[in-house]
Amino acid sequence: MIAHVGRTLPVLLLAAASGVLAQGEPRIQQTTVRAGDVEVPVEIAVPAGKGPFPPVLYVHARRGYDEVDRRLIADLAARGFLVAAPDWQSGRFIERWPVPHDPATEGDVAAALDHLMQRPDACRGPVAIVGYSRGGYYALRLAAKRPQDVAAIAAYAGHMQDPNAPEGAQLYGVAPEVFQVTAPVLLVIGDQDFELRRMNNARAFYALYERGVPVEIQYYPMARRAFDFRNDQTPEEKVATRHARERVAQWLARFAPACR
Fold first, then answer.
1. Which of 16, 88, 152, 211 has its CA 20 to 30 A from that of 178?
2. Using an 8 Å Cβ cutoff, are 225 and 197 in contact?
3. Burial tier of 231 (Cβ tally within 10 Å: 0-12, 13-18, 19+)
């Protein structure tokens, strides 16, 4: 894995949009990491002040990585987390909204995890993962393969099943990794999300609980799918967004490695 540091983007407006009053202005750095013969774009949200900082890997949804994702990682950085966000689509020229899952992209995300863990401004120890929709499946896969490197998972409307699994498995089952992971899991979802996704999250919650894995599920009343990314947010969804950001940050801080 090779990393190439690129330009740094100011995120004053991003932090302001997140509603977070930070002690200073986070920075967004652009870099790339190599996964085999693929150059994977990665954005790093760096908190203000002197590190090291608790590391967080952010994995975007199949809609692609864009400004709304950048606002989310800036929010996390404003709360004191060092966040790496790989774009698992553009490095392989995958169009937005792919239906099938490409297992090769898991290596791209893993390369970003390696880069994050090796950064001098990251606390030593396992990394928390925030996954959005399809990103939740990547989080499960990483946590099952590398349990020693994953401190906790927070999934926004996470896809808790293999996207390539047949229809019946999508409706009645969860990913095999749900029965393997040991990292604490927080599931965040609106109660107006698609019924199949709500059922999928509920089944994952019960399976993890039965195994003794620390797990919590946060439902938001009157909140639709992607309630925190929508341009047509209702007043209730705006409140849900603020609460969800705080809830996720508290979960990550609870299980983050101690910085020395």
1. 88
2. yes
3. exposed
